[in-house]
Amino acid sequence: MIRFSFLLFFVFVTGNAFPEVTRIEVTSQAPFAGGKVFGATGPYLRVAGRFRGELDPTHPANRSIADIRLAPRNARGKVEYSADFVILRPADPFKGNGTLFYDVNNLGNKVILRQLNDAPPGNALDAPEAAGDGFLMRHGFTVAWSGWIPGLPRTPGLLRLDVPRAAGVEQPVWDEFLFNDSRQVEAQLTFSAASLDKKAARLTVRERNDDPPRLIPPGGWEFLDDGAIVLLPRGTPFRAGALYQFSYRARNPPVAGIGYAATRDWIGFLRYQQRDSAGTPNPLGPDGRHGVAVALAHGTSQSGRFLRDMLYHGFNETEDMRTVFEGVNPHIASARLYLNYRFAQPNRAYSLGYGFVGYPDAGFPFAYEKQNDPRSRREDGLLEHCRARDVCPKVLHTVTSTEYWQGGHSLNTADAAGEHDIALPESVRIYHFAGTQHSTTPTMPKGVCSAPPNLAVDPRPAMRALVLALDRWVKKGELPPPSVYPKLADRTLVSASVLKWPTLPGSGAAAFAAPRAPNPMAQFDYGARIAEGIIDNVPPAPHPFRYRVLVPAIDADGNEIAGLRMPEQAVPAATTTGWSLRSAEGGAAGELCYLDGAALPFARTAAEREAAKDPRPSLTERYQDKNAFLARIRTAAQDLVKRGYYLEEDVEKTVNRATRAW
After folding, report:
1. Total domains in the fold of the chain
2. Which residue of 72, 213, 329, 644 is surrounded by the most CB atoms within 10 Å?
C-alpha cells in the first residue's frame, strides 16, 4: 500500500476569496460497493450532486473561451454554468493516499473503474461489483468525475454540463454521417436547424475521403424536423459505409469551451476551498476537511484529447494562479479536441476509421515539445502556455497501435516532416502498447470489420503500474520507467509502404488484406477567424498540405517490434494489429474500420499450418505444448514487473487469461 510520507499542508479559503464555484448541492451520499473495506484505506463513500459556478469573462484566464463575451451575464457581470459530479472517497478521508484522481468522463460516461479496477461497465456505481477488484481504492485514491460536455441527453448516469448560449449568433455549420448498415433512414443533426428552407442547406455524399463529393439534389432529401433529415422517397436508407456531409444554418451556439474552465474550477475548489459561499462543505471530507494534496487526471480517447487541449489552452491554472493537476495521463489520444469553438462538436473524433477528417481537432501542434510547423512556419508545442506560467504537470501518455494508424500519433514523437525523432520534455513519458487496439472491447457491430477484433492483447495491467508510477513521480520525484515507443533512429518507426505483411490464409470475403496506408493527416482552410474558435468556411476547404504519418515496424508474423510489449504480444499466439479493414457487408470495403484492430490466430499444429498455407509457424512449432507457452507468458510478465511496467499482482491474472489462446 503506497502512503504519503511527507507532511501535508492544507490551505482552505472561505467566503468570496475563491468565487469561481459558488454552490455545491449534494443529492446523495451512501457507502460505496456495499460498504466493502479496501485494505488499510477502509470503506468508501459515493457522493453525488451538482455544482454551480461563474466566470469573469474579462479575466485573462477566461478570455480565450470562444464566445464567452457573447454569453449572458448575471448581476455581478459573471457567466454562470452548472455541472454534475460524482466522488468516491475514503469514509475517513485521512486514510487515503493524498491523491485526487480525476477521470475525465467519455461521452458523459465513467471509464476509469472499467480500465483500472476491471469493473463491469455502468455509471450508477451503486452495486457491490462496481468496485471491480478495488485497485484504486486499495491504493487509497480519491476518485472524482464531473460534467464537461454541453448538450448531452438527460440519460440517468451521464454527467452533464449546462452552459449559456451565445444569443443571436447564426451561421452555417456542418455534420458528417457514416452508417454501418443499410437500415438507417434518419440522420440526426448536432444542432437544431435555424431554417427548414432547403435552399439554405446542402447534402453531399462520397465513397471515400479523397473522392469529390456528389451533390444530392434538394428533391432527394428533406428535413424531418429541425433536428433530423431523411432521404426521399421516405424510407430510403442511407448507404452503409458512404460519407454524407450536410451543411445547414444553426443559431445560438452553446459556449462549449466553458467545459475546460468548469473542470479547472471544480478541481480547484476540491483542492483549495473548505466551503462554498453558502457554507456547504467541500464533499471530499466531513466539514470540508480532507487529506488531498495533489491531483492527477486520466482521460481515455475523447477524454485524453480533452486533457491535451486543456493544457494547450492554458487551463491547468486557476484564476488565482494555483496548479490544477500535477500529473496527467492522456490515454489513446493523439490529437486535440473540437471543444473551444463556436458550434463545437466535442463528440467528433478525427477520422473515425476513414471519414470525418475535416473537423479542427487534428492540427498543429501535435507534440509536447515545441517544434516548427512546415505549413504555417510557426513554432509551438502543447506545453508552451503552462511552461510560461510554471504550472505544467508531469505527463504520462499511453497509446495503442490504433493511434498510429488512425490518429497520426507519429507526429507526437517525430518532426512534422517525418524525418527526425524529437526529444521529449523531461516532464513527459510516452508508452506505446505494441500490437493493441484502441479499446479492450469491440467498437464496431459484428460483420462490419473483415477480421475479428483484437482482444488478445490487454494493456490494462501496464496502465495500472504506470498510474502508480505517475503518482510516485508527482509526490516523491521518483522517475517512472523509461518511455518506450517506435523511433526513426532505429527504424522501428517507418512508412507504411515498407511493411511486408505475411500472406495469410483465406479466400474471398475472408481473405486477409493489408491497409494501403494510415489515415492521412489532412489539413483544411477554416477561414480567417479560426484562432478565435470561429469557422467561416463551411464545410472547410481542403488544403493541399498533408503531414507525413508513420507507423510501427513489424516482424515476419506481422507483429510490431517496438513499444511496450505485453506478455500476449511478446509471446504471441496470433498476429495482432491496431487496425482492421471494413468488410463488403459494412460498406466501403478495404477502408480502415473505425477503432478496432484485428487478431489472426496462428495454426495449432504444423499440419494445420501447412494445410492452410499459413507462412507463420504454428503454436506447437513455437512453444511445443501449452505448459511451455504459459511458462513463457509468465516469464514475460515477470520481466515487465522487474522493469517497472507491471505489478506482481497481475502476473497470475495474465497467465490465466493466456490459457484461452491455446
Report:
1. 2
2. 329
